Every structure is written in structure tokens, then in C-alpha cells.
Fold:
Amino acid sequence: MLKKTLYAFLFLVCLTGCKSDHKKFTIEGTVSSTKYDGEWIYLVPAEGANSSNVDSTKMKNASFTFKGDIERIAIIRTRPILRLSLQELLVVTEPGNIKVVLNSPSSAHGTPQNDALQLWKEEKEKNMAAYNFIRKGLQTVSGKDSLRWIAQKDTLQERERIYNERFLKEQGNNTVGTFIRKMVGGTGK
Structure:
């Protein structure tokens, strides 16, 4: 009887251990140079950050690692002066191995939500560059030319709205979909 109880206990321990690994994330990050070795890097929840839920580590050999088991949107960031060359990065701490490159620009991939968030980020950056181009163009024109620039801006805004609706519909109510929905005020379900 004692043997059966011991085997049952060991089986449950193994089963529990195996299940918990499925909910864990690992962020393996790199930076462009070892000149950042010894610098602190932080994994900060995008919402509700406080001293008890911010993780930190030091960079070593131009790399860093974070591990955990809570799924949420977080920001990978460095001290402010380094943010001029190492762009902050939104990541989803979803189960799996997340590969991060901190640079200018930064990127994340390796899990479904981080792959989607990276595509959304790239689209957003492309649109911001187009808005800046239009804004500069509007400063140098007048009359009918300004109407053409405004029409370009309106077209860009509509394209961005359609992209966000499609993105939100594809993501549904997962972590990244919920976060982006709050950010852009969209309803695409």
C-alpha cells in the first residue's frame, strides 16, 4: 500500500511539473553590442506596474533573459539615456520562447501573439512615417495642393482604421487584442 501511495504521489508531482511548464514564458533578448553589458534591463507590466511586479536583470554578453508564468502585456526597457539607441518594446509574456532584439527599432517574435504584435507595430511605424511626411508637406503648400495632402491624410487614416479592425477581429479577446483594443478604442471582435 505504501508503494502504491508513493508511486501515485510521484506521478502527481511529475504531472503537475509538466503542466506548469506549458504556462511559462522565456524571453531571450539580444542587444547590438557588449558595451551594454552590466546595464540593467527591466520587464515592466504595461498596466498596474509596481515594485512587486517589475522584473529586472543585467545584460551580459550582449544578451538578457526573463522567465515567468504570468501572461500580460509588458514593456522591455532600459534606463532613459539608453532608450535613445535601444527602443522600448511591448511584448506579450505568453507561454513559449520569445526572441527579442533591442535596437532602434526593436523587435519580438517566436510566439503567436508576439508575432502579431510585431506586425501591428511595423504597420503603426510605417503609418507614423507617412503622417510625418504629410504634415511636413502641408507646411509648404496652399490652396488646391493642400486639399490633395489632406485627402492623402484621410486615405491613410481610413487604411489604418481598416487595418486595426481586421487585426482586432483576428486577435479576438486574447491578451494583445484586448490591449490594442483599449489603446486604439476599436471594437473589431
Q: What stands out?
A: The longest strand covers residues 25-31. The helical segments are 2-21, 112-138, 144-171, 175-184. The mean pLDDT is 90.
